[in-house]
Amino acid sequence: MCLILLFLAGTAYGIYRYDLARQARQEAARQELALRIAEDEKANDKKLRQAQQDSIFWNHTLKLKTIEAARQYIAEYPEGIFINEAYMLMEELQRRTVSQSEQTHIMGVVDNSFAAAREQQIKNGARRIRDIQFRLPDSLVIRKKQITPDSLLYFVSGKVNKITIPAGKARPDTATIELHMTLDKHKNIIESNLASKARR
Question: Cβ of 5: how many Cβ atoms within 10 Å?
Answer without folding.
Answer: 9
